[in-house]
Amino acid sequence: xxxxxxxxxxxxxxxxxxxxxxxxxxxxxxxxxxxxxxxxxxxxxxxxxxxxxxxxxxxxxxxxxxxxxxxxxxxxxxxxxxxxxxxxxxxxxxxxxxxxxxxxxxxxxxxxxxxxxxxxxxxxxxxxxxxxxxxxxxxxxxxxxxxxxxxxxxxxxxxxxxxxxxxxxxxxxxxxxxxxxxxxxxxxxxxxxxxxxxxxxxxxxxxxxxxxxxxxxxxxxxxxxxxxxxxxxxxxxxxxxxxxxxxxxxxxxxxxxxxxxxxxxxxxxxxxxxxxxxxxxxxxxxxxxxxxxxxxxxxxxxxxxxxxxxxxxxxxxxxxxxxxxxxxxxxxxxxxxxxxxxxxxxxxxxxxxxxxxxxxxxxxxxxxxxxxxxxxxxxxxxxxxxxxxxxxxxxxxxxxxxxxxxxxxxxxxxxxxxxxxxxxxxxxxxxxxxxxxxxxxxxxxxxxxxxxxxxxxxxxxxxxxxxxxxxxxxxxxxxxxxxxxxxxxxxxxxxxxxxxxxxxxxxxxxxxxxxxxxxxxxxxxxxxxxxxxxxxxxxxxxxxxxxxxxxxxxxxxxxxxxxxxxxxxxxxxxxxxxxxxxxxxxxxxxxxxxxxxxxxxxxxxxxxxxxxxxxxxxxxxxxxxxxxxxxxxxxxxxxxxxxxxxxxxxxxxxxxxxxxxxxxxxxxxxxxx
Amino acid sequence: xxxxxxxxxxxxxxxxxxxxxxxxxxxxxxxxxxxxxxxxxxxxxxxxxxxxxxxxxxxxxxxxxxxxxxxxxxxxxxxxxxxxxxxxxxxxxxxxxxxxxxxxxxxxxxxxxxxxxxxxxxxxxxxxxxxxxxxxxxxxxxx
Lengths: 673, 143
Known about the structure:
The complex is a heterodimer of chains A (673) and B (143).
Chain A: H1 2-12, E1 17-21, E2 27-30, H2 32-38, E3 65-73, E4 79-91, E5 94-103, H3 105-130, H4 137-152, E6 156-162, E7 168-176, E8 190-191, H5 196-203, E9 208-210, H6 221-229, E10 234-242, E11 245-254, H7 263-302, E12 307-311, E13 316-319, H8 321-328, H9 332-335, H10 349-365, E14 368-376, E15 382-393, E16 399-408, H11 410-464, H12 470-497, E17 505-507, H13 509-526, E18 530-535, E19 541-543, H14 545-562, E20 570-578, E21 581-588, H15 595-598, H16 625-635, E22 639-645, E23 649-657, H17 660-672
Parallel strand pairs in A: 18-20
Antiparallel strand pairs in A: 1-2, 1-5, 3-4, 4-5, 6-7, 6-11, 7-8, 9-10, 10-11, 12-13, 12-16, 14-15, 15-16, 17-19, 20-21, 21-23, 22-23
Helix pairs in contact in A: 3-4, 3-7, 4-7, 11-12, 12-16, 13-14, 14-16
Chain B: E1 8-12, H1 16-28, E2 32-36, H2 39-48, E3 53-57, H3 65-74, E4 82-87, H4 92-101, E5 105-108, H5 113-142
Parallel strand pairs in B: 1-2, 1-3, 3-4, 4-5
């Protein structure tokens, strides 16, 4: 009863079971599951008909359980993977072996799938690892394309990138299973309008999978034509987006066979496209950044002015070569990180104070500011700089440091000052002209008034000399003398205003001086003044004889006045050539000019000679003799100056340039000699 | 000795006082003075009268001294009249212009009475010779 039950249980066991006669190797028992597996009666078949003899592990007499993997030949077309557990069993001197069969088909499929998935994941991992760095971008892309190709069995894997115009795409990278199917060179600047359907799909982030070109929709006629011409059987393509903008695509072509779309392939490509897209985006940003940095550093280095940037603690963060050499006297690498106060040029309380002051202004005010700063350079030279300061911020808009541009304005300041001086001179000249015009007008009217007074007084003297007291006549004569003095002032005023008598000739300066001496000799003699002449040969000057006559007369009269009451009065006149000029010294050993007056003597109406005397021939200074002389000398291209030591000497120095024509002749003479 | 008494002198000057003073001097010197305040009136007088000498200012209203001199020198009957410029302008250019236009002499203001007297006398002495020469010429032409 029990045996019968065990027999039934054995028959109904879920796992297929075979029992084999160990001697004859034929199957002596099969249960229902075994019958179902084989779907035919296999009783009495040799075990070797269904299991490869080499696989079978001998399970002889011992009572051991053995297990081995093998395949089971179910039919001519069906072989399944199995794990077989065997156990021997001895009944009535016959040894039987029990085969318990475990079907491995599902497990194998699952593990294969798992292995495949692992392979895909490994590929994705290796691609994404490769793209961790944006260096060697091209190598990484090519590596990724090859990995994708090898894994998916694709014949050609490629990357297209949008061109700058965004109207064409170019095949930038390609991997092919054999080189003869390469297309990259043909697919440059491919117009998007030639693949509108394709582009529209990609733009709406739809993967393109074409198993057979026949499946292409009607509006993809152009694409179909192109793909046909490229002998493509199947393809997968996915878009690459950067900042939500279509920037390219990654695709796999199958040239030799048609394939069905495997979800894993699509997934792989999707991930790859994302990785490449990110990497491409980073590369574009990085390239832009690198270019920008290169451009900016070139720009900063090209600025011919010191430029540097510092943090708010005054540590130098960077700068251009000009800053390093001009301000620091070192290389830029040597000063980065240093505090600006460690640079000798900046290392004064005043300078650090100025920086501090303007840094604070800048931080409060924001934006930028500028100021002027005088620096003592490394070579001891003083320079003026116009300093522009501007804040720069970190990504959270917090002030991070200050950019400083220093413009050397030393030359500008010098020029500006010179310009100011010139302007001042011009203004003075204009003023002088205006005063001159006024003076002329005044002098003219003044002369008319004086003429009336003088003629009246003289008529009175003529008509009443015999009838009135002498004291009255004396008073009238004093009026007359003073009108003459007034006339002299008016005359000098007009000479200052309009010395432009253009009657110039080539004259020997010595002749002019001699003629003046001749005129003044009697006066000089009466005061026992000795004249020394130290003339050397000089070329003739192109000057106005009459005007110069006036000048030397003025100078000699001045000398005469300076020598009054002198015990040994002397006047020395020297004429000599110096460089390209003729110089004349008119020197006396008289009272001299006190230093406080020396600057004033060429000013109109400045005189130390005191009031006039009754006798009009002894008129003392109008205060116009030297100003008139200066004006005349200047209008004859000359210069006049004075040197003096009180109670020792006074020397008037006149300098006239030798006319170019004369100079040339002089040079020619030298050559001839 | 050339008789220079009763010579007529026209004084042209816009400054009344000065003009009268010169007239007084001229009278003292023994000449017959006449006066005009500007060039235009002076020319009218010159055309209507016989003067031996004109003493004229340069800068005057209505007609200045230069234009007066030009008109006189362009008048065939009057061009021989001696002409002295009297001016406060000491500028050489003005004097040069006056001489080029045909002035016989000049005196700058303010002048010394002696200086003016000498100039008048010198001019009239020379004019005396000239007018005799011209009178002879005239008489020979009329004859």
